[in-house]
Write a structure and sequence with these properties.
heterodimer, A: 290 residues, mainly alpha, B: 292 residues, 12 helices, elongated
Chain lengths: 290, 292
């Protein structure tokens, strides 16, 4: 082949079919599923490990007293209280860390630069990277709650409480996606140890009432929990699933309003922050560095 | 410098550090320097470790002291969970350190470089392990200090109970380190062994009764029997006897735990070393020290 032919070949604009966002996100999901499915042993071990924590709190519930739960307005059942807390905390932690983990993985494998220099926008990239982990996270959430039910968790499931649970779960996911985007922006710059995901993990465990009602915290510490959307989500979800409250309950509506406000305020900021971090990393030519 | 000098330099077999001890110190020092490069990560890690203790302080407020006392572990759930959380965190940080570091070196493409230098690989592996022990020790001491002086956990700190605790603690590390050696051997060959370590950590924590008294398992004989297969179960039982009940090394139950841990160590450590050696020789033979 002559040089002129090569130049002509490279210069040629090849007509491409426009790929929709849905198709791209689906492609991300299929790709991640294929990688995930390769490690079948890993999947089995992951299932066992997520079930052991349910069993652990089953045994812890045998030595607890429900007094603090009753005083905080929940049904007297530590097992249900703790399994809802830990399952949803793990669910949102996996969603928050999914973006940072995915970016870290792409950086390690050297594929980050390749993907982002294609026609795929960074918003679609973020969405695609997080979707599969959300699906898997939902699967593990359902498995944990199912296992809990087998061990004696008591849910109040009627149409109203299930509808309220659905609304709260959607808001829970959305509000934590926002935090995940902030974490992803940090990992693009820092490369190692995402402080937002770490802080989120231990602060929510401590102050969002994952394993105990917030009434047990001293007054001067209670305000910390109010910063995190997980606090409102867990309170709302427990009221629905343990007490059978519906969307008409003022406590549930209060939690929903706070979650919506959090999303409306933080979402534009986190997208702006990610764009800044992404642009600055691109300018430095450090997208593929790790 | 002319070409013959350069050739001479490459031919030279001069080792900067000839003694194994100097090499070991160099590996540990290099690892510590890398760790200190990520200061924010380090601070967050420390805070999250302390947070886990504080969290179980609040969980303890929901525990019925009478129910805990029926299991024979006193009335303080904070003291009970503190010993479990502190030692299990330390143990798993130590055990996973070697496999994590090796995986890191493989992915970074530096394991091959190290393997072709005259550095003794056994010394290199020991160096990575020692780094894990040293750093995690800071966390362990921090967790105990927060628990005892910050939250008021009532632990027996007499010389008799502390010396018995130390013996059990060392035996816990020796008997469990074999799991880390086996995991490292498997990771070197199959490149994906983290879940194995992770599941062992989760199972160990669950079956040894880190968060609940093992007496709760009486109704579940199969789970109880499984828990007896893990050396950490005996180590934790002994350490709780010393720190919560004030038992000394002459206590019959503590002595029984020590004897069982020695047997575990005698079986598991040689097995772990064999698997590690097998993994290392195999990746060298197959030329896969850099693939992942």
């Amino acid at each position: 082949m002559k040089v002129e032919e090569i130049v002509k070949y490279m210069a040629e604009i090849i007509p491409q079919r426009k790929v929709s966002v849905t198709e791209k996100v689906l492609a991300f999901i299929v790709r991640d599923f294929k990688i995930w499915w390769t490690y079948k042993l890993w999947i089995t071990l992951d299932i066992i490990s997520s079930l052991t924590f349910v069993a652990t709190y089953y045994f812890v519930s045998m030595i607890t007293t429900p007094q603090a739960l009753i005083e905080s307005g929940y049904a007297a059942d530590f097992l249900t209280f703790s399994i809802i807390g830990v399952s949803f905390q793990q669910y949102v932690f996996s969603s928050v860390s999914s973006l940072s983990d995915a970016i870290r993985e792409e950086q390690w494998n050297g594929t980050m630069e390749t993907i982002l220099s294609s026609t795929t926008s960074f918003r679609v990239f973020l969405l695609g990277e997080s979707m599969f982990r959300f699906i898997i996270g939902s699967y593990f959430l359902a498995a944990s709650l199912g296992m809990g039910a087998l061990l004696g968790m008591r849910f109040i499931l009627n149409l109203e409480s299930m509808l309220a649970t659905l609304v709260l779960t959607i808001l829970l996911v959305m509000s934590h996606m926002v935090i995940g985007v902030l974490g992803a922006a940090m990992i693009l710059k820092l490369k190692q140890g995402d402080p937002i995901v770490w802080a989120f993990s231990w602060l929510t465990q401590l102050f969002s009432g994952v394993l105990y009602p917030l009434g047990l915290l001293p007054d001067w510490l209670k305000w910390v929990g109010n910063v995190f959307p997980l606090t409102y989500s867990l309170d709302g979800l427990r009221r629905c699933l343990m007490n059978g409250e519906s969307l008409s309950s003022p406590m549930i509506m209060d939690n929903i309003v706070k979650l919506v406000v959090f999303i409306v305020v933080i979402l534009p900021f986190s997208l702006w922050f990610f764009k800044k971090s992404y642009d600055s990393t691109r300018k430095e030519g450090a997208l593929g560095q790790y | 410098m002319n070409s013959s000098e350069i050739l001479q330099m490459f031919k030279g077999e001069e080792l900067r550090y000839k003694s194994n001890l100097r090499q070991l110190m160099a590996v540990v020092w290099a690892q510590l320097k890398m760790m200190l490069a990520y200061k924010s990560w380090l601070i967050m890690d420390l805070l999250s470790t302390f947070a886990s203790v504080v969290m179980y302080y609040f969980v303890g407020l929901q525990v019925d002291p009478a129910k805990l006392s029926q299991s024979g572990w006193g009335t303080s759930y904070l003291a009970f969970s503190l010993v479990g959380i502190a030692t299990s965190n330390y143990l798993w940080a130590c055990i996973t350190r070697l496999s994590h570091s090796i995986q890191h070196e493989i992915r970074g493409g530096t394991l091959e470089t190290i393997a072709v230098t005259p550095v003794n690989m056994l010394v290199f592996f020991i160096g990575l392990t020692v780094r894990g022990y040293l750093v995690s020790l800071i966390y362990l001491i921090g967790v105990f200090l927060v628990g005892i002086y910050g939250l008021g956990a009532n632990l027996s700190l007499s010389p008799q109970s502390l010396s018995a605790f130390l013996v059990l603690f060392i035996l816990m590390l020796v008997s469990n380190q074999a799991i880390g050696l086996i995991a490292t051997g498997v990771i070197m060959v199959y490149k994906k062994g983290d879940p194995l370590v992770f599941i062992l950590a989760a199972l160990n924590e669950f079956l040894a009764g880190v968060l609940y008294p093992l007496e709760m398992l009486e109704r579940f004989p199969v789970i109880k029997a499984l828990s007896m297969l893990f050396p950490y179960t005996y180590a934790l039982d002994g350490m709780r006897r010393t720190l919560i009940l004030g038992a000394s090394i002459f206590d019959i139950n503590v002595l029984a735990d020590i004897a069982i841990l020695i047997v575990f160590s005698m079986i598991l450590v040689p097995t772990g070393l064999k698997v590690l050696g097998w993994g290392y020789r195999r990746i060298r033979r197959e030329g896969t020290t850099s693939s992942y």
